[in-house]
């Protein structure tokens, strides 16, 4: 059976983040499925509008991309959508509403095993106190960040999780740091791409996590790249996409 693979991410207006963090994931998925028609789309209408206004470049949203595939001759049951979202929140749910017969794969952190695997990877990869900072959400899926924070502790590392929005804000981050006894912290964007939120809300020079923690007396370093540049994270997405394309359990 012929297949089409639609790779859907939130998107970014930062071209460097797209090239360094997003495109490596898309390229890895495309290379893993050479017989499929592979397309990409952004789910954020705000990002799409900003890109078109700034550059004139038109990026398809998830519905437009799916419609193009149907015009190319693919039926709904031949189209698969692999999300590049971290949690199955508001943006993810846009994908599940396109059509009942279009299978949608899992977000990065959809299972308990995903959280443990990432926590173990983080523990091995970072040897100093590290705070992974995600976007956060008003959606119930925001609870995933709390569970990942707990998994970090269970993995035996010196790491924690906080968010720009949602439950695990700056007060949570400060409490975690105080309880750790650390006097310095390394910030890592828990985001697929290091775009606007990373550059402004995490390590920006004006009212960011970096300036907040420095103001509390901590020495702060940070990573400037998103998760998409990590081979481990790309492999997590590859496994989910393989299951999706093979119609195995896990596809929505």
From TrEMBL:
One of its GO terms (molecular function) is metal ion binding. The keyword Lyase applies. Substrate binds at residues 87-94, 192-193. InterPro entries: Anaerobic_Co-chelatase. Its EC number is 4.99.1.3. Signal peptide: none annotated. It holds the Pfam family CbiK. Keywords: Cobalt, Lyase, Metal-binding. Co(2+) binds at residues 10, 135, 165, 197. The active site is at residue 135. This is Sirohydrochlorin cobaltochelatase. The gene is cbiK.
